[in-house]
Each structure stands twice: as C-alpha cells, then as structure tokens.
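Hello again,

I reread your note about wanting to compare the complex against the isolated chains. To keep things tidy I'm splitting this into two emails, and this first one only covers the full assembly. Below are the input lines as submitted, including protein chains and any nucleic acid or small-molecule components. They are followed by the predicted structure of everything together. The single-chain runs will come separately.
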Amino acid sequence: MADVVVAGQRRLLNIGDGAALKAVVLLLLVALIVLPLLSTVLVTLQPDTIKAWSDVLFGRLSTNLFYKPLNNTLLIGVVVSLSCVFLGGFLAWLVVMTNVPFRRSIGLMATLPFMIPSFAAALAWGSLFRNDRIGGQVGWLQGIGLDIPDWLAWGMVPTLIVLTLHYFSLAFTIIAAALATMNSDLVEAAQIAGAKGFRILVGIILPVTMPALVAACSLCFAGAVSNFATPALLGLPVRMQTLSTRLFGMIEVGQVGRGYVIGILLVLISGVFLWAGNRIVSGRRSYATITGKGGRAKRFDLRSARWPLFSLAMVILFSSTVIPIIVLAASSLAPSSANLFSNWTLHYWIGTSDPSIAQGFPGIAHNEDFVWALIVTLGLGLAVAFSGMFVGLLASYTTARFRGGWISAAITQISFLPLLVPGIAFGAAYIAYLGAPIGPFPALYGTFALLVIAGTAYLLPFSVQTGRAVIQQVGGELEESARITGASFIRRLTAITIPLAIRGLAAGGILIFVKIVRDLSLVVLLFTPTMPVLSVVAYRYASEGFAQFANAITFVILFISIAASLVANRLQAKSQPWLQN
Amino acid sequence: MLEIRNITKRFGDVEAVNNVSLAVPKGAFLVLLGPSGCGKTTLLRMLAGLELPSEGQIVFDGQTVSDGDRNWSVDPAKRNSGLVFQSYALWPHMSVRSNVEWPLKIMKMPKSDRAARIDEVLSLLEIDQLAERYPNEISGGQQQRVAIARTIAPKPSIMLLDEPLSNLDAKLRVEMRTELMRLHRTTGATTVYVTHDQIEAMTMATHVAVMNMGCVQQFGTPTELIERPETAFVATFVGTPPNNMIPVEKTGTDCTVGGRHMPVTPPTDNCLAMYRAEALTLSQNEGETTLPMELIETSTIAGRTMLTGLNDGLRLTAVLDRPPGLRIGSLVHFCLPCQPDCWFGKDGSRIS
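Full-complex prediction:
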C-alpha cells in the first residue's frame, strides 16, 4: 500500500517536472524565434510605418521596390531549384545506381560545395569573368584577351550558375539518400516485367523518389531565393535587385519600414513554396513500404558511357569546388586579376602599408580590422555552437522525453520555423526585436550578444535535428535501464548519457560553428564596425573593389570551414549509405 | 521441364552456390529449403535471370536461358518466368490495379484484353474489391495477394517465389499456403519456392532440394527426405520433430554413445547414430541404453507429448503417447533402442 502511494506521488512529481520543463523550453523558443518575427510585423503596423505596405505593394515605386525584385527572385528560385535537382539527381543516380568509375570520390566531392560559403564562388566568378563594364579590375579571361559579354560577367546568368553550383550538393545529399534507401526489389520487379532503362526511370524510380525530389527542390528554392551574397556581388553592380538585396538596401538607407515589409513578403514566399512542396507529396500514396533486403541490386551498367559520364561529373564537381578555390587562392596573390597567375606577391596577406598598392592598405595580417574580425568570428562560432547545442539538446530532450501534449508539438513546430525564414529577413527581424531597448534591457544592436542570440535562433533547426539524432543514439531504453538501477539524474548524465553522446554533440557543434562562420546573409544587417565578422568584412572589401583582400579573407573562411567540416566528418564517421556496396 | 546443370555462383571469393544440378518435370512444385545464407535465394535469382551463373546452365522447357560458361543469359522479362519478391516489391505510387496492369502494358497487351485479365487474376486471388487502393492502404496479407496477382497476370510458365510467407503472421501463413497450392493447381505453372521453413516445404512440395552452404544436400520428394535422409544435415533439418543425432565413439572393443558405454556395433570408429524421436522412450532409472538428461521442454502435439532433454550440448527429443508428469529441470533418462535407425559418418554422409 505504502509503495503504491509513493509510486503515485512520484508519478505526479514527474508530470509536474515535464510541464515545467516544457513551459521553460517553449518560452525560450518563443523569445528566440516567435517574438522577433512578430515584432517585425508589429513594427510595420505602427501608424508611422504602416504606409510602407502600400508603398511596397501599390505605390508609385512599387515596381522597382517590389515587383521587379520579386520577378528576379522567383526566376532565381525556379531556375536554380530545377537545375539543382537535375544536377544533384544526375550525380546521385551516377553514384548510387551505376557502375561509374570512382563512385566514392564523386560522392564525397558532391557534398563539398556546401562546405564552401556561397560568396566564395561568386567572388571567384568575378575574378574570372569580370569585364570592364563597371570599371575597376577586369577578370582573368578578359585579361587574356577574351571579350566577355555583359550577360556572362554580370547579372542574372552568373547568379543562376553560381547559385546552382552551390546548392546542387544539397539536392545531391537528399536524392542520394532516397535512392540508396529505395527498395531495389522495386526496380528488379520492373525489369522482370520487361521494362527497360528509361521506362524504369520514368515509371518507377522517379515516382518513388518523388518526395525526395520535391524536398530537394523546395529546400534549394528556399536557399536560392534567400541568398544574399551572390546576387549582391554579381547583380547589384548592374542594378539587378532581388528581394534580399532590396531588403538589405532599404535597411542600409534607413527605410526600415519598407525593408521589413519586403522581409515579411520574402518569408511568405519561401513559406508558400515549402508548404506547396509538402502538399504535393502528402496524400493517399504514402511512400513508406516494407523494406526489402535491399542493396543487392546490380548496378546499372553504363558500358561505353562510363568514362564520358565520369568526365561530365568531374566537370561539374571541379567547377563547383576545385576551380573556385584555386581562383580565390591565386587572386589573393596576384596584384591584378587580369593576370591571375603572374607577379604573385604575399603583399595582400602579410605586406605592410605601401601607398602604391591598394590605396595603402596593409596585408590582412597587419590589418587590425581583419584581426579583430577573425577573433569576433571565431568567438561567435564557438559561442553559437555551445548555445545552439545547449538549446537544441534541451528542446529535443524535452520533446523526446515528454512526447504528448500541445506544448511538445508547439516546441517542435517553432524550432523548425527558422527554415522558412531567409537569413537576411531573420537579421532584419532581430533588429526590429532587439535593436531598441525593451523595458529595462538595453538595446543590443552592435553587441556581441545580439550576434550570438540571433545566430543561435537562426540555426536552431539544425541544432534541434542534431540534438534529436544524439538523443536517439543515447536511446530511451539505455537511459531507462540506468534509471531502473536507481542512478540519480546527474549520475546517469555523467555515466551514461554524456559518454554516449559526446561525439555526436561535438560533431553537431562543429557543423553549427561552420554554418555561422561562413554565413553572410544573417549577419550582414547585424554587423557594425565595432563588431565585425569575417564574411561581412570580405563582402565590404569586394563591393568596394578590393578583390584581393576580399578573396584572401574568403580563403581564410574557406580554410576554417573545410577543416572544421572534415573534423566533424571524422567525429561522426558520417553515415553515407549511398557509398556502401 | 526445368533443369539446372552444374550451376555455380561466386561473389568475389565467396561461393554462394556450388555445383548444383537438378531437374523437375513441368508442373512440379519445387521447394528450395535451407537455413539462411545457404544459397537458395541466389539460386532463385539466377532462375529469374537477375543474376548470371558463374558456371553451368539453366534450361526451361528445353531452351537454355542462362549459360554461365558462355557468360550469357536471356533477359529476365523474356524467360517466361515470374518472381514474387519476399518484400512484395509493390510499386507504392500505383494502385493495386495499376500494379497488376503495368507489366501487361510493358508487354503491349491490348487494352481490352488487359482489363479482362486484370479482373480475372484479381478475382482469382479474391482482391477485386481492393483494385483502387494503394499498397499502403491494404494489409500485409493483401499486399502478398497483389504481388502474386501481378506475377501471374502475364501467365508465366514458371513461377518463382522468394520466402513469400515469411512476413505474414502464423494463421495467415497457413491460409496462404493452401491458397498458393490452389493457385499452383489452377495455373499449372512449374513453381520454384524458396523457404527456410521445413513445414512449408513438406506440405507444399512435390520435390524438395535441401541446401546447405551452397550445395544441394538431398533432392527428392518430401517422403523420401523423411524416410531416407541422405545426410546428417537433412536428418536433423527436416521432420517434426527432427531426428536425434548422437555421436558414437569406438575405442578398441569399447563403444560410447553420447559419452556412455553401450552395446552397439557402429560401422566405423567415429560416427553418428540417428534415432527417430518416436523410437525413444523415457525411463525413471538408469539402464543399459539410457542417457541422463535435464528435461528442458515439453509440449503437446496432436494428442502426443514431445519432450526435449539437454545434456552437455547434446539435445534429444522423444515423442510419447502420454505425458510423463515430470517437472521441467528434473533429471530423466532417455532410453535408446538397441540399434539406431541409421548411421552417418563424421562427415555427415549416410553409411547404412
């Protein structure tokens, strides 16, 4: 009898714990994610800014303010997402389903572009293709005597190419995973029915992997429409505006209300497309089926097309990773990007001030701005990695441990909300939210704290995802079996949970570190001269025409990103099922 | 007529199937029986044309369809055979009707014939009311029926089934077994059926090939396998309950059976003695031909009682007419008949 009473009390206590924890996490997420977005909307509804809505949507300037950038943005979104699915799907098919030579290397290289910041490729494009349209240095190709037409040097075409070469690796990862987990019996059943290659592709493989294709398409779309760096570097010089560059411009010139309205519209557009993608794949035909033995399917024999297709893959992969890296490295050493591979000097890296070069700016090692930005960036990366993993783990632990109830559902939904919000719009939201004092709290604009808080909130979808993976790894049962032995919470944490989870946590933290270090779109609005970060410093140099400094700094970011990503890969012994035989 | 001639399949250094030869007449129900990893599924996939044999030939109705020596095989679609996958492999984006229809479309069967044939097979398998559903909307047993309907719709003369019942629950399995046998009689197609379940094999087959480690241990009718097992593996794998196999050692004139001295006359120094479960009895006391065992299992089967004893890794099963009223864990003496039912050599081959 006494036992029953004790058990009953214990139970009540547990429910109480859960509710308290859930409430705390929910409040935290609301403060991090919901309030910034809400306050942006509220700001635009203030009496003195509400006119911004009609200005943007119907005013005399609305064509230039909104509709032209909207057209460009949608064009970029559609073309880039379709090309990414096409390229990523092609490479995924090669790696997973055929006997193309060096499949593993192709698979590894196809995941690399995502480790490189997207503005790296845009800068590299400039170093190669710039013509004399806007003055300043010309690119290498113009330098060796080719006449680069404007459409190839500036504006839409290069933006589309650079963004596709960046985001296709996202599509590759998603589609390759889907192809690898597809039950090979489905294809063999079609072969037995007598269908041949193309018929199998169109009749079976494409429909079955449709959810992955749509997911890849919508994520690439969301990425492309919210990308700031590429259209800013390649489009702004010829006045090609997208919604994200327009948003940036509005806030830069102080038309904050209009900027916020554009930001809200950008969020809505991303949201509508992601929602539509989701709608397409849900419905009666669920794609979950009984999995077979799998993996036994014979690879599709490409016969004489093996080497040609291999070369084609290599062209894509080289132009998305190797070439940008080489061009960046070379152009940070060459005094003139027209002569990328001659007169190399380390001046832009370690030189002291010389009035005859680059208006007397010293090399980046002697540039106090750069050194300070490096310190701030690394500090920001570390801080966001820690706080992100902490919040992510807390949120995923809470939802895993106390599954039921609307609070858990709300926590899950809110934590994935930032996926819908383009980085630059999120940055704008944070200015609206914490840019001015709230009650007793001082305005955080221009402080390190603002960068950390915004970064943590922005990357929460990734940290929650990592947290979930870690918690699944530690597994309810492992922890429960420790509870049954009577070990206390702290004891369980130190003896069971942390030792099991530490590698996953470290890997997740490093990936968050990389994401924030190479990010430009979130921080470009939060940046202040007293609190600079590397990516924004590089962007400023590039837009002011100091390509060598910009490229040198980008090279540093690239080095940090790739090194950290490789460490993370080592740590988590990354599961890439499509590479297994 | 289905003929397999000296088929070998190697994956790298591993020999999955090793020099298998067998032949069954048209309309036979051939079961490939063996534990997992014995090569039975690989053999079936070679019959389907999904794998190329490394050596040997496969002949359907007098026509060679696979020739490993010439590195050549007829396309899976043109062998006049159909395969039912263990996972069913239903295309998830197509309704039941479209799943059955697609192969017929590929064959370029005219539309009206197609509709008629679909209706025919769907009603044959009693799933006509599910025609518009999607695979995820029907139960496992119904998915199984759809997979079979899809396979028989093009009227293959050879039906291949890969462990078709392993994903079903026990009761459904028994029903589907009957269903498959009815289907076999109706279509008259030569059927090759892969399973690790010897009860399925014994109830359904006209011919059984027992496989182990890539080799056919014995090929014959179910009755032949029970009455005259050719190897120790077959003797202990087939039959309910399986036969008892006891090691016998001869040192000089002394002879030990399962570690105890007994007056038997083995044909060689070291060999295995097979005793059928129904030949064993139980005794309260030690006797000349008893083995002491710990009683570990009893169960009632068709009015008789099956008892299993374990001692030092040796497991014996006896079938008695009435329950002995003993507790699990108690010491019992299994009483062997004077002579075993037959002898096997140390290598597992039958001696007498």
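For quick reference: The longest strand of chain B covers residues 290-301.

B.
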